[in-house]
């Protein structure tokens, strides 16, 4: 026995069982336990073959991410890989749960791999801004070939056992629940049949084959340029796989190149940010005043009010995990249209082969259509997703309070309104919570859970856990205008709208923001969403309002900030330029000419950081990393910057304070304090 390992012998088979919760990551404790097991069985002449298996919920989930950037401590992962691959006795990896990153790479130095059908294997390092640095870029192409390895490693998605078997990533499937027995009998068969010791590193045919198509790597980079933009890891992954081909059959030379490229990524700001983000995403569910003693309420059925795009998307989240939904609308027509959209979404997935036609019908059967609110009487949770008007919401909540059984949670999907005012329309404000989804609600992973003044801890806990169970990342916010994501990003919109009156064009602004790493700039986004939709009723006149008056609604009609050809290709618009110039004149703002990209980025994004600091000051957000998660998942803020707060820490808070002062925007007290103390918002 070691701290994390136990070792036993059954007949001729030695079994190394590692159990290092929560996910058997390959930190020092785990590595020592593996080392002890293999040394012990190497010395035990009664053992002829070895099974390596994990206890707990999963096979090794990869290297211990918290060890990156620290000096290595022996035995390091590579020592362990060598120990296993050079074992004189065949080793069978027995996989359940998820064999990821270094975990799957470790299975690749075993001589055989067997997995239960529910297991998944994969190399997700790319999402940490890394490449598989324990031989994954050298061994995987030797098994699946170069084209498949490129997709698997740059995509980073885990692969289900059955598919992995087809690809050769594992050698056999065990019966679910019988992994240990099946792995032992697999090992016995190897011995009985005298099967050879299979070393992946000796298999060179697929790499030699690839030497013939020299252009494959450049073409791959070109084809994926858009998806890889701004990320450092995908390019390095491609180069590492290329090295496997170039150096084959010299395995060690390829490994040396993989290590060089890995170390470059490990030290890169992109990977630092992405590793920070990995933990940030897992931190959001931790609410300081809600401990393990706080329970949750059962949610076995859900009601959704409003079958528009939002309500339909929200509904799909619950159907997908088997929770039935009563979908309520005011008219049969609206209801039919909404249900039709949900059906079409599922049918499109079926067309793409992502689900069967039978599954579509199963999911649709979970919807109970309803006119009016009466049918919501027995559901455990109601989510209201009607349009943003306080009087309408209050009326609905007051009615729901009278209709729904005691204990039903009443949630609003409001994006801006005061949840406490809505809650006050009911006799159960402790059961009122915000559940703010982002559009399209069946796709976007952010869920802001809004905690009202009187919302009970149990209700918060329920909403957070439920959010996680439907695949969202729940971020907790207190009540304020726009909550977290919309409030910080509104600060960017305000600056963008002002800036185009001062000289830079919408194209200049969009380009600077695109080059920073966003998928599109604010004006491209406005045109896409529709200028009639983004219209503001808090100002008398605006550029977008003036464009709407000219019937320029954006991409959907006559252009907006841009002109569009029949293929929706954008070009600068002379009409929009005139509207902007007229508006600037009306406001008495002088055109001072173009600005640098750097100045534009500072103008638009420093105020986002400032707003984030205010959210912390006001206690709206629990922690800076929650703000980063909200920006990344709600607004596609480029993840390799770590989000606005991590980015501000990276460039230096004093620089942000100076920038804000120069723009005449008062910096938040917390921001100034942290800058003065040389402090940070986030912990890398
Ligand atoms: N290192 C350190 N901690 C890890 C970890 C890892 N590789 N993987 C998970 N954890 C921690 C999480 O931070 C979390 O901690 P917390 O409870 O204190 O918040 C805890 O383990 C449980 O994780 P999840 O909440 O994510 O648990 P799930 O059950 O939802 O998911 C999982 C399990 C699918 C294994 C998921 O944790 C995961 O995807 N882990 C990361 C896998 C990965 O990226 N591996 C590659 C690592 S890099 C590498 O191997 C480099 C190599 O090539 C050299």
Overview of this protein structure:
This protein is α/β, with parallel strands linked by helices. The protein has three domains: 5-266, 2-enoyl-CoA Hydratase, Chain A, domain 1 (Alpha-Beta Complex), CATH 3.90.226.10; 302-481, 3-Layer(aba) Sandwich (Rossmann fold), CATH 3.40.50.720; 505-587, Orthogonal Bundle (N-(1-d-carboxylethyl)-l-norvaline Dehydrogenase, domain 2), CATH 1.10.1040.10. Helix 1 (28-43) runs parallel beside helix 2 (77-85), helix 4 (136-144) crosses helix 5 and helix 20 (485-499) runs antiparallel to helix 26 (597-617). It starts with a strand and ends in an 8-residue tail after the last helix. It is found in: Peroxisome. It catalyses: a (3S)-3-hydroxyacyl-CoA + NAD(+) = a 3-oxoacyl-CoA + NADH + H(+).
CATH architecture of the largest domain: Alpha-Beta Complex
Tell me the number of helical segments per DSSP (H or I, 4 or more residues long). Answer: 30
**Helix share bin:** 40-55%
What is the CATH level 1 assignment of the largest domain? Answer: Alpha Beta
- C-alpha end-to-end distance: 35 Å
Helix/strand-derived category reads alpha/beta
Number of domains: 3
Outline type = globular
Provide the spatial order of strands within the biggest beta sheet: 12-11-10-13-14-15-16-17
Radius of gyration: 28 Å
Largest β-sheet summary: 8 strands, mixed
What is the CATH fold-level name of the largest domain?
2-enoyl-CoA Hydratase, Chain A, domain 1
Number of DSSP strand runs: 19
Low-pLDDT residue spans: none
Instruction: Give the overall pLDDT as a whole number.
Output: 96
- Tell me the CATH superfamily of the largest domain: 2-enoyl-CoA Hydratase, Chain A, domain 1
What small molecules accompany the polymer chains?
A: 3-hydroxybutanoyl-coenzyme A
Strand portion, in percent? 5-15%
């Amino acid at each position: 026995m070691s701290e994390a390992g136990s070792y036993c012998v059954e007949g001729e088979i030695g079994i190394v069982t590692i159990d290092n919760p929560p996910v058997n990551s390959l930190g020092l404790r785990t590595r020592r336990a593996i080392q002890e097991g293999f040394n012990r069985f190497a010395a035990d002449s009664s053992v002829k073959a070895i099974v390596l298996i994990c206890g707990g919920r999963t096979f090794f989930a990869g290297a211990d991410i918290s060890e990156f950037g620290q000096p290595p401590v022996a035995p390091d992962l590579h020592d362990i890989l060598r120990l296993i691959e050079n074992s004189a006795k065949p080793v069978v990896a027995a996989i359940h749960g998820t064999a990821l990153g270094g975990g799957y790479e470790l299975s690749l130095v075993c001589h055989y791999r067997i997995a239960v059908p529910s297991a998944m294997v994969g190399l997700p390092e790319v999402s940490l801004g890394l490449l598989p640095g324990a031989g994954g870029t050298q061994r995987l192409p030797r098994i699946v070939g170069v084209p498949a390895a490129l997709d698997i490693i740059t995509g980073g998605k885990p692969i289900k056992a059955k598919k992995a078997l087809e690809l050769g990533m594992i050698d056999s499937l065990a019966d679910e629940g019988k992994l240990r027995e099946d792995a032992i009998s697999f090992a016995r068969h190897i011995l009985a049949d005298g099967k050879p010791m299979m070393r992946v590193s000796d298999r060179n045919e697929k790499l030699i084959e690839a030497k013939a198509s020299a252009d494959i790597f450049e073409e791959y980079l070109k084809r994926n340029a858009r998806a890889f933009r701004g990320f450092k890891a995908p390019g390095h992954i491609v180069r590492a796989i290329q090295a496997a081909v170039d150096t084959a059959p010299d395995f060690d030379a390829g490994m040396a190149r993989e290590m060089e490229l890995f170390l470059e990524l490990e030290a890169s700001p992109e990977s630092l940010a992405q590793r920070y983000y990995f933990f940030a995403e897992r931190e959001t569910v931790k609410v300081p005043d809600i401990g393990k003693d706080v329970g949750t309420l059962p949610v076995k059925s859900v009601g959704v009010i409003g079958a528009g795009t939002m309500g339909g998307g929200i509904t799909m989240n619950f159907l997908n995990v088997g929770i039935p939904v009563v979908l309520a609308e005011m008219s049969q027509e609206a209801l039919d249209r909404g249900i039709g959209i949900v059906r079409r979404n599922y049918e499109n997935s079926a067309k793409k082969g992502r689900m069967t036609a039978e599954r579509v019908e199963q999911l649709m059967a979970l919807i109970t259509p309803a006119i009016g609110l009466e049918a919501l009487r027995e559901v455990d949770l109601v989510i209201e997703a009607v349009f943003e008007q306080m009087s309408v919401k209050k009326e609905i909540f007051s009615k729901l309070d009278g209709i729904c059984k005691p204990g039903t949670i009443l949630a609003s999907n409001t994006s801006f309104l005061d949840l406490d005012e809505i809650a006050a329309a009911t006799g159960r404000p402790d059961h009122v919570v915000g559940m703010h989804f982002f559009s399209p609600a069946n796709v976007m992973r952010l869920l802001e859970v809004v905690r009202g003044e009187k919302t009970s801890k149990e209700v918060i806990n329920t909403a957070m856990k439920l959010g996680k169970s439907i695949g969202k990342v729940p971020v907790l916010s207190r009540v304020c205008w726009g909550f977290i994501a919309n409030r910080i990003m509104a600060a960017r919109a305000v600056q963008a709208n002002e800036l185009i009156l001062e000289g830079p064009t919408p194209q200049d602004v969009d380009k600077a923001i695109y080059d920073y790493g966003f998928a599109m700039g604010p004006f491209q986004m406005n045109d896409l969403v529709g200028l009639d939709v983004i219209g503001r009723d808090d100002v008398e006149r605006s550029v977008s309002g003036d464009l709407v008056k000219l019937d320029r609604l954006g991409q959907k009609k006559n252009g907006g900030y841009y002109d569009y050809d029949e293929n929706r290709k954008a070009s600068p618009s002379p009409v929009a330029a005139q509207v902007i110039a007229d508006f600037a004149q009306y406001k008495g703002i002088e055109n001072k000419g173009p600005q640098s990209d750097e100045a534009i980025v500072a103008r638009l994004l420093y105020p986002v950081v400032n707003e984030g600091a205010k959210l912390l000051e006001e206690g709206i957000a629990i922690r800076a990393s929650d703000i980063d998660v909200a920006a990344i998942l709600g607004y596609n803020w480029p993840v390799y910057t770590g989000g606005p707060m991590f980015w501000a820490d990276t460039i230096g808070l004093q620089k942000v304070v100076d920038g804000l002062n120069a723009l005449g925007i008062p910096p938040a007290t917390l921001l100034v304090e942290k800058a003065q103390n040389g402090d940070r918002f986030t912990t890398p």
